Amino acid sequence: MVVSNRPGANNFVSNNGGRADLFLSDPVRIPTNTHNHSVKVTKASIWYNFPNITETNNLFSFSYNGATFNLYLPIGLYNVIDINNTISRSLSNLNDPSISSTFIQLQPNYSTSRVMITFEKAGTTFNASEPFSIGSILGIPTPITSAFDGQVLTGINIATINTVNQIYIHSTIAGANGVRIDGDSGQVVASVPISSSPGTQILYQPFIPDVVPINSVSGQSISRISTWITDENNNILNTFGEKWEVTMLVTYF
């Protein structure tokens, strides 16, 4: 059985692309005189494009020499280097002779999982606590100010750049069951690790798939199967127009 978020006459997809409701013209019937009913995900393809910068955290605000500058990052999926490059381009576009493209530079400290900010000039403040600030995911929740030219300051918290660390595939075909995660099944039929770089496709084909018992649906005629993908907090993911596909195998003896 293949389920995807491609719209069709019998496949209704949510506005954010994270859920698909498949209506079967030929319903699935699981005989009652059989045993060991189960479902497993044999493969899946999901684009890794879930943004960590949205309209809720895309402001980089800083003050220098009595003026405040607000830079807005486009919604997207960034790492620290991407954020730095975007800020650098925005600084260049300010057309302010006192501010260069390297006026503020961000770089990751992989040893500590924190972000380091280099300030070209003394008296520059990163206004990290402004509403919609990017400061929280950079691990810098409060304003910081450079005391001298070229000062490097490090975030006090671990950066939370990766807002999605695991993808859960849910499906109503699991009935009342599912892969148990923190004691709750939530109709999860597979837990997909992030195994690709941002902007590329995750190709999931487990060597030993999770097997989910579905004895609760034995004897039922299933004409609608809902499948959805979430992050590790069970928030349905916005696919931003990209397509996903899940292949599930139902078995019984």
Descriptive report:
With 253 residues, the chain is mainly β. The protein has helices at 80-92, 135-138, and strands spanning 2-4, 11-13, 19-29, 38-47, 59-64, 67-72, 104-109, 114-119, 125-126, 144-145, 152-154, 166-171, 188-193, 201-204, 212-213, 221-230, 245-251. It is elongated and about 80 Å long. The model has no long low-confidence stretch (mean pLDDT 92).
Specify the number of helices: 2
Radius of gyration over C-alpha positions, nearest whole angstrom? 24 Å
What is the helical fraction, as a range of percent? under 10%
H and E string? EEEEEEHEEEHEEEEEEEE
**CATH topology of the largest domain, what is it called?**
Jelly Rolls
Low-confidence parts lasting 5 or more residues at pLDDT below 50? none
**CATH class descriptor name of the largest domain:** Mainly Beta
Overall strand count: 17
CATH architecture of the largest domain: Sandwich
* Shape label: elongated
Strand percentage: 35-45%
Alpha carbon gap, first and last residue: 18 Å
Averaged pLDDT = 92
Return the domain count: 2
Largest sheet: 5 strands, antiparallel
Structural class: mainly beta
Strand-helix topology:
Blueprint: E1 2-4, E2 11-13, E3 19-29, E4 38-47, E5 59-64, E6 67-72, H1 80-92, E7 104-109, E8 114-119, E9 125-126, H2 135-138, E10 144-145, E11 152-154, E12 166-171, E13 188-193, E14 201-204, E15 212-213, E16 221-230, E17 245-251
Antiparallel strand pairs: 1-17, 2-3, 3-16, 4-14, 4-15, 4-17, 5-6, 5-9, 7-8, 8-11, 9-10, 12-13, 12-16
